[in-house]
Specification:
- The protein has helices at residues 35-39, 46-53, 69-84, 108-116, 132-145, 171-174, 239-261, 278-287, 299-302, 309-319, and strands at 18-27, 31-34, 57-60, 93-97, 122-126, 151-158, 180-189, 195-203, 211-212, 236-237, 270-273, 328-335, 339-346.
- By secondary structure, it is an alpha/beta fold.
- The protein folds into two domains: 18-189, Thiolase/Chalcone synthase (Peroxisomal Thiolase, Chain A, domain 1, 3-Layer(aba) Sandwich), CATH 3.40.47; 195-346, Peroxisomal Thiolase, Chain A, domain 1 (3-Layer(aba) Sandwich), CATH 3.40.47.
- The strands form four sheets. A five-stranded mixed sheet has the order 1-7-6-4-5, with helices on both faces.
- α4 (108-116) links the parallel β4 and β5 (122-126).
- It starts with 17 loop residues before the first strand and ends with a strand.
- 43% of the residues are buried.
């Protein structure tokens, strides 16, 4: 009897595969926005911003130049493909982490696939705020390990500037956020030593009111918050509550992941963390006794870039030679949802 032919699209038996990072890339908008610039727009000062956040500058899209979440994602992904020496048609799937999609429909990932010339491959948007890229890394790893896909592009891109008010009424949020995109190409490899060691993904939807963007005046404002047309499509944040949540959760989820992996913090070569606040990052570094070289900080130059934050750090570290093959690297993020998670890799 002849063997049964393979059926296209059928689920294969999971092979014994590793997963590797084949290439990374990033993109920043053309328009810098420094603390000095903000001093001209609102009642604030460079000293006040730096003391509370560690941020000195950020970049925001220039719509007159045609910049958007899609154009940044496209530039970052093309650079990642170039570094991986791959053509867009070598990809099997694109996962775009963003909370600032071009529109509700179609998914921005579909337009991204078309813009880079990737053909009719699958493309999905993941909305997990600042955790989007970390969630997507874990998802992409599982899909590749299943044997269903061999090459997946994971992109984080956000342009939160469109949801900010650059005057004194929006000071608490406008000083924090910048726009950016970052991308990584994950590929199957026969080297089973490469891939995910441990991960964590959590959410607490009961605390959504700490960070949200209302779109409907009658439906989207929580109890006790007066609905206001001026707040529609503008970031609403309980800064004190988010800071307290992040300080505790950030260190706890790192410890949880280390415990799952049976490793100590000193075993990790680099912590690539979401850049929300320099004080939060410093607190985590102190708790685990890490040197400055092991927990990267770039928030001073680019601000909080939401889902782009982690891949932007990854690209900068890779280009600087501070992350290399064979390293153990932990990706960590937390954000709206509320969401928090990790992805610990053997590169």
């Amino acid at each position: 009897m002849s063997p049964t032919p393979a059926i296209p699209g059928a689920v294969p038996t999971p092979p014994n595969l590793g997963v590797r990072f084949a290439g990374v890339g990033s993109a920043l908008p053309s328009k810098p926005l420094t603390n000095a610039d903000l001093e001209q727009l609102m009642d604030t000062s460079d000293e006040w911003i730096v003391q509370r956040t560690g941020i000195r500058s950020r970049y925001i899209v220039d719509h007159e130049r045609g910049e958007s979440c899609l154009t940044l994602a496209t530039a970052a992904l093309r650079r990642a493909l170039d570094e991986a020496h791959l053509a867009p048609t070598d990809l099997d799937l694109i996962i775009l982490a963003t909370m600032t999609a071009e529109m509700s429909c179609p998914p921005t990932s579909c337009r991204l696939a078309a813009d880079i010339g990737a053909g009719t491959i699958g493309a999905i948007d993941v909305t997990a705020a600042c955790c989007g890229f970390v969630y997507s890394l874990n998802t992409a790893y599982a899909l590749i390990r299943s044997g269903l896909y061999r090459s997946i592009a994971v992109v984080g891109a956000d342009t939160l500037s469109q949801y900010l008010t650059y005057d004194s009424s929006g000071r608490s949020t406008a000083i924090l956020f910048g726009d950016a995109a970052g991308a990584a190409i994950l590929r199957a490899t026969d080297d089973t030593n490469k891939g995910l060691i441990a991960q964590a993904m959590h959410s607490d939807g009961a605390r959504w009111v700490d960070l949200y963007i209302p779109e409907d005046l009658d439906r989207d404002f929580p109890e006790g918050h007066e609905p206001s047309p001026e707040h529609l499509k503008r970031v609403q944040m309980n800064g004190r509550g988010v800071f307290k949540f992040a300080v505790g959760t950030f260190s706890d989820v790192i410890q949880q992941t280390l415990h799952q992996a049976g490793l100590a913090a000193t075993d990790i070569d680099m912590f690539v963390c979401h850049q929300s606040n320099a004080r939060i990052l410093s607190a985590a570094r102190d708790r685990f006794g890490l040197s400055e070289e092991k927990l990267y900080i770039n928030i001073d130059r680019v601000g909080n870039t939401v889902a782009a934050s982690v891949p932007l750090c990854l690209d900068e570290l890779t280009k600087a030679g501070r992350i290399k093959e064979g390293d153990k690297v932990m990706f960590v993020a937390f954000g709206g949802g509320l969401t928090w998670g990790t992805s610990l890799w053997q590169l």
